[in-house]
Amino acid sequence: MTLTLGILALSVDDYASRPSLACEIVTGVVVFVALWILEFALRLTVPPFLAQYCSLPCLNDKYRTVLGRVATTSVAMALISWMGYDAIVTNGGFTPLLNIIPLGEGSSNLQQDVHAERLYAYIPAAQRVALFHAAWEVKNFVDSLLHNDGPVFIAHHIAAFLVSVGCMSPIYQPYAGYFFGFSEISSVVLPVVGVLDDTVGMGPPELGDSLPITKMVTRGLFVVLFLVFRIVLWMAIAYRYVQDGLAVLNSSSCQSEPLLYCFLGGMMFFTFLQFMWLVQSLKGVLFPASRAIEADKKSS
Fold first, then answer.
1. 19 near 9, Cβ under 8 Å?
2. At 57, is the secondary structure helix, strand, or coil?
3. Is the Cβ–Cβ distance between 281 and 231 less than 8 Å?
4. DSSP secondary-structure letter at 20?
5. 278: which DSSP letter?
């Protein structure tokens, strides 16, 4: 079913040919506003449900805001992960991501042309996930400013937004389904882990103790998802990503060297963040007691 209204592109069919700039801007604004509406709706529903289900005292505005933001992140990341998976499947699955091969039957068999065809291919489902991801990063950027998430997260949101928008030019679209979409599957669980970990000080006190099985399962699930999607698969696919980019840089097919260097540098930046967050996550998820011990030492 297509939802084309001339200035709004929501379904993959709406991206059969690249939408106009006005359509992309309107769609991004609509997604941005929809995310805020979703968050306010979840602020009104999730906290009362948890307070009653877990026998918690009435939650104040701070915890209602946190729980609304956490629930919105999980829902949004689930949607973007599905969009990313759809983009991967419609582009031939993981085979083109893990191997330097032509994307279709009409592609050139000349090795020097294959990289450029992969790099500059237009893929409707990838265009959609890049646009939705860009809108999400704007929402995240505003959240980070409002909640003082820190400079690392702000820098991440700015960089991710710029790369998402640049990808729509198009460039690197065969990889968009994974890096902008499917790899976010670990982020579906991460906010739940954070809000249930009392040592983080993010969620309502005693919420984690009220849901011990959920707390244990989500911790274990997050570790597995992060290692698989943000480390193992990430590194394997990033290798092909860089290989495509370097090959095009050394050919006459390069359309913009500065843009390509930005994408290659962006991959290095985001890969560094994955390993930095891996260390932090393992410390906080696998060894949560260490934070409690540190806090106890500081208070003594």
1. yes
2. coil
3. no
4. P
5. H
> Does residue 300 have a pLDDT over 90?
no
Structure tokens at 63: 């915890």
Reading the block at residue 199, the tokens are 């040592």
Q: DSSP code of 18?
A: P
Q: Considering only CA atoms, give the Rg of the chain.
A: 21
Taking the C-alpha atoms of residue 284 and residue 292, their distance in angstroms, rounded to an integer, is 10
- Tell me, what amino acid is at 262? C
Domain locations in the chain as residue ranges: 38-287
- pLDDT bin (cut points 50, 70, 90) of residue 294 is very low
User: Tokens for 139?
Assistant: 């929402």
Using a cut of 0.70, tell me whether the model's pTM lies above it: yes
Distance CA 245, CA 144 (A): 31
- CA distances in angstroms from 220 to 137, 193, 213, 281, listed in the order given: 27, 10, 11, 11
How far is it, in rounded angstroms, from Cα 167 to Cα 97? 16
Alpha-carbon torsion (134, 135, 136, 141), positive or negative: positive
Token readout for 263 is 């994408």
Helix/strand/coil for 13? helix
Q: CA distances (Å), 91 to each of 88, 213, 266, in order?
A: 5, 38, 23
